[in-house]
Write a structure and sequence with these properties.
By secondary structure, the chain is of the alpha/beta class. It is 32% helix and 21% strand. Bound molecules: guanosine-5'-triphosphate and magnesium ion.
Length: 307
Amino acid sequence: MADIPESKLPIGSSLPDNYKSGFVAIAGKPNAGKSTFLNAILGTKLSIISPKVQTTRHRITGIHSDEKGQIVFLDTPGILEPRYKLHEKMMQAVKRSVEDADLVLFILDPADLPEASEMEWYKPYARKPLFLMINKSDRFGEGQIEHAKQHMIEIIKPAKTHVISALNSDGIDQLVDEIFDTLPQGPPFYPPDQLSEHPERFFVSELIREQLFNLYRAEIPYSCTVNVVTFSEEEDIIKIDAEIVVNRSSQKGILIGKGGTALKKLGTESRREIETFLDKKVFLNLFVKVREKWRDNETFLRSYGYQ
Ligand SMILES: Nc1nc2c(ncn2[C@@H]2O[C@H](COP(=O)(O)OP(=O)(O)OP(=O)(O)O)[C@@H](O)[C@H]2O)c(=O)[nH]1
Ligand SMILES: [Mg+2]
């Protein structure tokens, strides 16, 4: 995997007395910049990003380890009112993450403030510390940022408020230290050189899904899921077969496009991203499969990794 930082803590070395470790959930409304924030704080691209809502569907683990301790970040789907079973699974991923968390980072887009009713989900966890992260500071003036802050203080009681730009990595520097201040002492959960708990093939399917968001319009990215069916590593190339599952047969033609041009473009763009991520040459074979209403089918959802 590319870009894994060398751990500063050799495996097997004894831990300092005050070594800290814990889980930090990154939560917020769709499109607030949660995944951009995860990538910014880890300094590497782990979670996929798009200008469209509902990009993240799973709980994505990103691990920061240094000599002070280990922070396990949990990027989560944007909080929404479920309209189909896939949405329910996404909201379960948020709930599990917040439940497991020692600290919640609530990422806020000042142009999309939640109503009090939209923060009800947090009530059962109100005793957990929460940092309000006012994001996209590069786009808003002081007045709007202050308004967002006051609005949120009326609804929740943040332990701290930070103004950041995840896009420009502004306001992120001292955060790791402040997070460590809130975490309990304890041993690491993962080996210190591990960046995530997901296998490489999971990230490959996510990178293809990211390109679906980039290249297709309207409901198409929301109607698809991607499964890597073979991942075989040879000396100087990785051969990957991936299926794109669509919700209705009419979507298959849109995905493939006239003369296969759309699917070809999807393959080229995805391969480029996957090669950067895996730091190796990739042969990518994509095919499209119709599974009627998979988003509402418990069996399909489970087999596609939506727990
Ligand atoms: N201007 C600006 N844009 C940002 C910033 N952070 C994120 N964005 C943009 O906001 C959009 C959504 O970013 P994501 O990181 O995918 O947001 P998310 O909260 O993970 O979205 P979901 O997974 O759909 O819930 C993208 O177009 C990002 O480039 C920021 O600090 N400034
Ligand atoms: Mg996201």
